[in-house]
Amino acid sequence: MMSRTPLILLACGSFNPITNMHMRLFELARDHLQKTGRYQVIEGIMSPVNDDYRKKGLVSARHRIAMAKLALETSDWIRVDPWESEQETWTETVKVLRGAATNLRSGDPTYKGFDLAQLQLKHHYNESLRLLQSKKELMKNKWPIERSTEDPLSYQHSVLPELKLLCGADFLQTFKTPNLWKEEHIKEIVEKFGLVCISRAGSDPAQYISESDLLTQFQHNIFLVKEWIQNEISATQIRYALCRGLSVKYLIPDSVISYIAHHNIYTEESERKNEGDLLQPLKLHNTTVNPLND
């Protein structure tokens, strides 16, 4: 009998605004991982970044959360988690992953993956835990541990889920940006969690990995997913189009288009927001570092 590990995909980003491509990333990743025969993807989570990230043109998290919720009304397995965006300041991606992993595994006395005293992220992913427990109960009732060997999708309901960070392939290239990432955080992400990277035109994730000793060391935990139907929808270009009064229909959901129009979100003024500011991680990681092999 082939046993599959339940897996949850977590994507961190601006989602400014959410696009059809953002949602496609989850679908592509789920298809790829389930075709490996090793995983059963049970949930996708979008975690919009905090306003304090200070990215140019980043509109209020209140709007970004609302638009993402509208867009995901048609999905039965992807949801938005507002915790990261609701903090007083920007939260490093690895801490978001730690918090999610800790809460998803809470109640399991054998789990020793992280130091809970250092996380201080209790109760922030209660919704994740609740949904996971519901799904575990469903699996318990619907798929008992003793399964027919003819069912290739079977997995034991007692298996703890894995959590992986979902991203675009160009995400790997950001690891080389001085002061944007701490090297110990990169190591923790690729070693303890893993990455699922979706390709896009102009990026060569395999090359990014080969140029880094650290990424090469943990390449077994980095899944590269080929997008055969190229879809280069860019949130930045969508904002530019909206500022010019151009149509973005079929690039983002109609419900999101209506929300943007109703609240007049993307304007020339909004694109100037945080102009000239440093990204918050660049302010915090202001010591000289040597990320990866540069």
UniProtKB/TrEMBL annotation:
Domain of life: Eukaryota
EC number: 2.7.7.1, 2.7.7.18
Keywords: ATP-binding, Magnesium, NAD, Nucleotide-binding, Nucleotidyltransferase, Nucleus, Phosphoprotein, Pyridine nucleotide biosynthesis, Transferase, Zinc
SUPFAM superfamilies the UniProt entry points to: Nucleotidylyl transferase
Keyword Zinc attributed: yes
Pfam short name (any one): CTP_transf_like
Compartment list: Nucleus
MF terms (GO), sorted A to Z: ATP binding; nicotinamide-nucleotide adenylyltransferase activity; nicotinate-nucleotide adenylyltransferase activity
Main location: nucleus
Transmembrane segments: none
Catalysed conversion reaction: beta-nicotinamide D-ribonucleotide + ATP + H(+) = diphosphate + NAD(+); nicotinate beta-D-ribonucleotide + ATP + H(+) = deamido-NAD(+) + diphosphate
KW Nucleotidyltransferase (keyword) present: yes
Annotated pathway: Cofactor biosynthesis; NAD(+) biosynthesis; deamido-NAD(+) from nicotinate D-ribonucleotide: step 1/1; Cofactor biosynthesis; NAD(+) biosynthesis; NAD(+) from nicotinamide D-ribonucleotide: step 1/1
Recorded GO CC terms: mitochondrial matrix; nucleus
Domain Cytidyltransferase-like, first and last residues per copy: 10-239
One of the GO biological process terms: nicotinamide metabolic process
Cofactors named for this entry: Mg(2+); Zn(2+)
Annotated InterPro entries: Cyt_trans-like, Euk_NMN_adenylyltrnsfrase, NadD/NMNAT, NMNAT_euk, Rossmann-like_a/b/a_fold
Broad EC category: transferase
Quaternary structure note: Homohexamer. Interacts with ADPRT/PARP1.
Sequence similarity: Belongs to the eukaryotic NMN adenylyltransferase family.
Protein name: Nicotinamide-nucleotide adenylyltransferase
Species annotation: Aquila chrysaetos chrysaetos
